Every structure is written in structure tokens, then in C-alpha cells.
Amino acid sequence: MRDWLSHRVAAAPDATALVRAEDGEAWTYADLDRLVEETAGRLAAHGVDAGTHLGVHLSPRVGYVGLVHAAMRLGATLVPVGHRLTPREIGVRLDRADVDVLVCGADTERTAIEGAAGSGIPILSVDEPTDSDDSHGSDAPTDIEDSDVAALHDSDPEPIPDSTWNLEERLCVLFTSGTSGRPKAVEITAGNVLFSAVASAFRLGVHPDDRWLVTLPLHHAGGLSPVYRSVLAGTAIVLREDFEPGEAADDVDRYDVTGVSLVPTMLTRMLDRRGTLSDSLRTVLLGGAPASERLIERCENYSVPVYPTYGMTETASQIATATPAEAFKDPDTVGRPIFLTDLTVVDDAGDPVDRGETGELVVSGPTVSPGYYGDPEATAAATDDHGLHTGDVGRIDENGRVHVVNRLDDRIVTGGENVDPGEVADVLADHDAVHEAAVLGLPDETWGERVGALIVPAEQTDASEESSADDGDEGADGDGDHDESVAAEVADAEAADPGADANGSTVDATDVGNEPAETNGAIGDEVADVAQPDAAEADAAEADAIPEAAESNVTREAAAETDGERDPPIDERALLEYARERLSGFKMPRTVAYVEELPRTVSGTVDREAARDRLIEEGVEPSVPSVEFDRAGFEPADPEPADREESGAADREGSESNDGEERGDGSEAAIEDGTENGTNGIGTGAGVDEPTDGTDDDR
Q1: Which of 30, 76, 178, 278 is deepest in the core (most CB within 10 A)?
Q2: Can you give 664-680 as a three-state secondary structure string?
Q3: Topology of 419-518+537-629 in CATH?
Q4: What Rg, from alpha-carbon coordinates, does the chain have?
């Protein structure tokens, strides 16, 4: 078969394919086809052809949509690379996926250059490249071969040979985050995407005049899936290049949007801004994190058609999806498996359990990835005769509905993004001021979980060792050799919500020097198209997890910090600046505490529950304002002006009266980039963007 856009433009050239939300400019399928043909020809002039791994390091824009289809037209494999990743993270992904050519924009040029430094990967910009001498800092590569960026629009398009696809061929490579912190490159075939689109359509329904609002990053399955699916179904997407909750809510009404993929935090903020959503909306596909019962009830009260969904990158999006009727009746369920997808619940020995019993969820069917690119060991470890091990604990009730209980591993899910604690702990411990650190998730009402770090300062450890030597004490637990003795140990991982049954998790290596065991599959990296509910039990879990004594401790610490009395034992600014250079914003610790030694089990591994208790009781926000280390992803927008149109004000007033709780200050992360293991979703650069005015739409 040819690329899907070729088939669609032949069938419906005048149908609307794409609308840019910011200004309403629209492209028909014929317009989009011309854009894609030109873009593909320019890429071909730079050697992109069948088999090329084409990396795309761009923020959401019309040109990105063009590149998605241009890659398929050329027979190339698309490799989306998050536009807010650090150069270190970019470099890892380029290497893991064997990227041959990298496309960037003006806003991502510097990180593209630094991430690709030394690799020899050609870099193309959809915008006018900036002068390398003026635009890059002192850390930028000095080798001209590493820093040259070519303007894609300067190349004359070359004729494109016909490319055909079969269902087994690799359409794209999407990244997930394994528990060792090394991103896994998931192979997604044309068949995976096609079967996922068909199964999703059967569950959600598709109408010829459907319009799907795309608010999620296009390197997420939740953002990328609608781009492919719309062409298959002949429907339109409305692309919002920068998520702002009030504007996104208004887009639904402004463009008669019928569907949208969101993570719970996004939906909550949209409702906070507007009270409810337009009645044109038929589907809110909600995934990426557990959805709270309160949010589901709020959707029911305001007639928001919410479809809680569970999925992962490895399944090209959805695994199971609940209808609104199912969700309103049982907010805990993510519904039944989608068409042609089978779920098996297995025990620790890998044997299927009886209906209603809890175990690991194992998925099989035509949407499941053939494996991890370049990592046959990880592929073998994640699969068996039953299918792909998701790494999630759940059950299937007597009605066939799926309930996800918690995670087998220790990954933190914050605002729909997966964070590997071991990666964060390793970065912290690499700093001279830190001896070791344990990193884990803490309940957070806004984000589901936030990153917490329990830190042993290096100076404090040195002083403790000197004291032990002087006093003649053994000091076994603080003697600095202790990491080496437990370097490969793993502990029980946390359950998804802090009050959950301890059966849930099996891996932890959050302390420095502990390489977490590689686990099977993963949970919820997709952001909306694949799912798992939202900041869910966060409210109840947080209430259960913080006893009165802990609350008073937190209050005292917060008061001390406010009064300027807090005196951290290390230079927190230096540590956080060091970490932010190496980690995406959503991975940054939002709660810290300092201890003389990490709590450990008898086997020498970090005692996660004890560490969590210490962070709950003693943890505070870092002394450096979190806004200085903004998380990658959407941030809460500024409050709406008081004189906004009356309807918006009325909606907000109604929302406040029905749900006046505080939603947080927005310093926490959201959706942006590290994605990385499984969940559920082109400004205008010269030469790759809109066929009309050629405006530079880089924002």
C-alpha cells in the first residue's frame, strides 16, 4: 500500500484535514498533500529515503504534521524526539534509535546541535538556521561539522520514488522509559497503528465530520495517534501548538471539536477555567495517569463525555477504554479491552489467574509492538507465550472490565509523564555535594505524583565518618562502603497510590549505585490515547498518607522556610542547576529532605516506605523557587482577565461554586517530554509548513 495520505487525498481532496487552533487557518487534504509532497522532495534532496531513520526534534506545529506524512511517503521511519529534552537526553535517543537525519526548528536548534554533537548526524531546520557563532553558548560544539545546520527550504525538491508499505514494516520509533533509566526505543509498525485506529474507532465511534483536538506533544503516542488516525478515517485534526487550558476549552466550541485526548491534569484545568465543555464534544479520551473519582464525578455532573483509557506506547496507544456510562457507574475501571486486544492476568509464576483475581496484566494482539529497537534482551524479557508484560498490576472483573491497581516497578508518573527514579538519583549523586540519594514518588493532588528526593549530603557523611573513626565506633551504616555492598540490590516497589496493598511492586533502585532491574513493559506513557486514569487516588491517598503529626511537621517546615529560617546543608541552587542541565523539568525534585543515612532494609536496599515517610514528615520545597526550574510541559496559564467575555466569566463562576478547591501553583510538571514508556494522544517553518502565507510560526 502507498502512504495513507495518498489514498485519502484521492478519495476526498476537498475535505478539511487540518486546522491550526491559534488562528483558524485550515488545510484541505489536497493542501496537506502538496505540503507533504514538497517536504518529502526536500528531504529526499538530503538523502532521506526508504529505511532512513528520520528524527524530528520540533515543538507541535503544522510543519510537524507534514513531516509525519512525508516520512511515510518516503518509506522512512519517523523518530520523534521530545522538544523539551536536554542535549544529554537527546543524544541518548539519537543513539538508541540509530537516527540518520535530525530535523529541528529555530526553538530547538541549539539542543539539536548539542544533542547530536560528535555523532555526524546531519541537522536540517524547518526555519531559517541561526548563525552558529551567535546562537550557541560556550558549551556548544566547536567542530563545524557538528554545528552546521541546513535550511530545509533551501533545497530544491527532488522527484520521489514510489514507496509502498506492508503492515509489518516499522512506521515509527517511540521512546519509553525503562526502570534502569535507559530509554527504550519501541518499534511501531504500520499494522500496529492501523489496527489500533480501527479498534479505537469501534470503541469510540467515528463520524465523517469529526474534528479531534490535538493538545498533546507529537512525540507522545497520544499526540501522534490522531495525526495518523485522521487520515485513515478522513476526519480533521485541530492542532493546538501550545496548550493553554482556557484556550483549549474554547477551541472545542470555536471549531466544533468532537474529540480530544487529555491527561487528567489538563482536563481538570480546562474545567476549572470554563466550568464545562461545549456540547459538540462527543469524546474525551482520558489517560496517562489515574483519573480521580472526583474528576469522573465532575464529568458526570457537567455532562462531559469522558472515556478513561489504559494503554502504553508498546501497544500504539489504547489497550482498554471505558465508555462514559461505565466510568460513571464505576470510576475505578478503564473498561474492556479494545477490539482484537487480549488481556491476561498472571501470577508471579506467569500462570493465568481466575477472573477477579489480581496479578500482572499481559497484553497480546495486532497493536502490540514487535519489540524494542536494538534491544533483543529487553524484548525477550518483556514477552512470553501470553504476550507483552505491561509491568502493571490489575484485575478483570466478572463483567470483563479492567481495573489497574498499581505498578510493578518504581516508576513515578507525574502529570502523565513517566520518571525513572534511578536516573534522577544518579544525576543528584553525581554532584559533589551529594553522597547518595533516594528518589521516589509522593502523592500530589494536581499531578498524581511529584518527585521527592531524600539526600545524604557529602560533607555530612564525611563528618560522620571522621567522628566514627575518632570515637572508635564501627559506623557500619554510614561508612561510605555501604553503596558497593548493595549495588545491584532491588527492593519492593511502591504501589501506584501510597495507601495501596504492598503486593503491587517489585523493583526499586532509587539509591545511587543501584541499577534498577529492567522490568517488563511499563505503564502509561501514552498520554491520552492510551491510558490509565489521572491524578487519581491522589486526594484520598494523600490524606491517608499524611497523618496529623506529619502535617504539623510539614507546616513547621513550611513556616520556617517562609520565615527564612531554613538553612539547607548544601547549596541547593547549585545542585538544582546541575540537575536541570541534565534532566527534563518534569523530572526535577519538588520535595527534598536531608538525612545522615538512607533508611534500608535488612538486605541493604533502600526501604522505600521508610524513605517516603521521611519525605512526607520532613520534606519541603527546595529553597530555590520552583519557577526557576520550570517543568517541561504545559504550565498553568495566568489567571484570565476579569473583563473576559461574559460567558467565560459565568462559566468560571459556576466552576468555582461547584469545585472551589485549590489546584496548585503550576510549578509542577506536565506533559512534556521524557516519555517514555507507555501512555495515551508544525508552526510554520519555511518550506515545510503551510502552503499559503509562509509565515514563520515559530513560537
Answers
A1: 178
A2: CCCCCCCCCCCCCCCCC
A3: GMP Synthetase; Chain A, domain 3 (3.30.300)
A4: 25
How far apart are alpha carbons 312 and 332 in whole angstroms?
Answer: 18
φ and ψ of 53, to 5 deg: -95, 105
Which of 56-60, 320-324, 616-620 has the weakest average pLDDT? 616-620
What are the angstrom distances between the C-alpha of 662 and each of 445, 446, 559, 656, 659? 9, 9, 19, 10, 9
> Tell me, what's the pLDDT at 288?
84
Task: Please say whether the beta carbons of 295 and 332 come within 8 A.
Answer: no
In this predicted model, what pLDDT tens digit does every residue of 347-405 receive, in sequence order?
989 999 999 999 999 999 999 999 999 999 999 999 999 999 999 989 999 999 999 98
**DSSP labels, 401-413:** -EEEEEESS--EE
Report the range of poorest mean pLDDT among 193-207, 461-475, 532-546.
532-546
Digit-coded pLDDT (tens) for 65-84: 999 999 999 999 999 999 99
State residue 549 phi and psi, 5-degree precision. Answer: -65, -40
Q: Which three cell numbers stand for residue 310?
A: 489504559
Whole-number Å distance between alpha carbons of 214 and 260: 6
Nine-digit cell at 113? 546541535
Q: What cell was used for 452? A: 521527592
Segment (H or E) for 372: strand 371-372
Query: What's the one-letter identity of residue 148?
Result: D
Q: Sign of the CA dihedral 623, 627, 630, 634?
A: positive
- The pTM for the full model equals 0.69
571: left (phi over 0), alpha (psi -120 to 50) or beta: beta
Q: Residue 95: its pLDDT value, please? A: 96
Residue 380 cell numbers, joined: 525477550
Per-residue pLDDT reduced to its tens digit, 417-434: 888 888 899 899 999 999
Residue 227 in 3-state DSSP?
Answer: helix
Q: Edge-to-edge strand order for the sheet containing 236-239?
A: 26-28, 16-20, 236-239, 211-214, 259-262, 283-286, 306-312, 317-321, 336-337
Give which of 169, 136, 203 is closest to 2, Cα–Cα: 169
User: pLDDT at position 530, please?
Assistant: 31
Q: Mean pLDDT over residues 516-520, rounded? A: 32
CA distance 575 to 468: 27
How many C-beta neighbours within 10 Å does residue 549 have? 9
Residue 150 one-letter amino acid: A
CA 147 to CA 112: how far, in whole Å? Answer: 9
pLDDT at 460: 56
CA distance to 193, 297, 473, 487, 586, per residue, from 322 (Å): 20, 14, 60, 42, 28
Q: Which helix (H) or strand (E) holds 63?
A: helix 62-74
Under 8 Å between Cβ of 252 and 272: no
Element (H, E) at 62: helix 62-74
3-state SS, residue 28: strand
pLDDT at 449 over 50: yes
Show me where the domains of the chain are located. 419-518+537-629
Place of cell 545546520: 149
Q: Give the pLDDT confidence of 318-356 residue by residue, as tens digits.
A: 999 999 999 999 999 999 999 999 999 999 899 999 999
Indicate whether 551 pLDDT > 60.
no
286: β partners: 262, 308
SS3 633: coil
- Is the pLDDT reported for residue 170 higher than 80? yes
Judge whether 489 and 605 are in contact, CB under 8 Å: yes
CA distance 75 to 69: 10
SS (H, E, C) 479-543: CCCHHHHCCCCCCCCCCCCCCCCHHHCCCCCCCCCCCCCCCCCCCCCCCCCCCCCCCCCHHHHHH
Q: How far apart are CA 258 and CA 643, in angstroms?
A: 29
Q: Are strands 283-286 and 306-312 parallel, antiparallel or unpaired?
A: parallel
